[in-house]
Design brief:
Strand content: 35-45%
Helix content: 10-25%
Low-confidence stretches: none
Strand order of the largest sheet: 1-3-4-5-2
Distance between the termini: 10 Å
Number of domains: 1
Mean pLDDT: 95
Largest sheet: 5 strands, antiparallel
CATH superfamily: Hotdog Thioesterase
CATH topology: Thiol Ester Dehydrase, Chain A
Number of strands: 5
Length: 133
């Protein structure tokens, strides 16, 4: 499976007083890309909760910050998913600016949990079938 890519514009709300993206902003951009990747496969978070009774929760996150993103920058946020186990997915993610410079990179693992109990459960079969090993 190829990288999923999401264009993101940096807004004032994403930055600190100096116009630089605050460190948690990158985490929100990574989250948006994973959510839109899921949507591109025909699944939504809400649908999975209502129909399959599952949620996803981040259980491991490592971010390497390389260069700053600034107000009004157009960013390219990527997500490369893979199956990490019966109940989890792993993602390699990057944020690059319009010039192609790497700004931040992340490794993220999300677990599938039952919406009522928040206990781990297997990924829905239809989703697991779409993931590279």
């Amino acid at each position: 499976m190829s990288d999923f890519r999401l264009p993101v514009r940096v807004y004032y709300e994403d930055t600190d007083a100096g116009g630089v993206v605050y460190h948690t902003g990158y985490i929100r951009f990574f989250e948006r890309a994973r959510t839109e990747w899921l949507r591109s496969l025909g699944f939504s978070q809400q649908q999975l909760t209502q129909e399959a009774g599952v949620l996803f929760t981040v259980v491991d996150l490592t971010v390497r910050y390389v260069k700053p993103a600034r107000l009004d920058d157009l960013l390219d946020v990527s997500a490369r998913p893979r199956l990490a186990g019966g109940a989890s997915m792993a993602f390699e993610q990057e944020i690059r600016n319009a010039a192609g410079d790497l700004l931040a990179a992340a490794e993220v693992r999300v677990a599938c949990v039952r919406s009522g109990s928040l206990r781990p459960c297997r990924l829905p079969a239809a989703l697991a079938a779409r993931l590279p090993q």
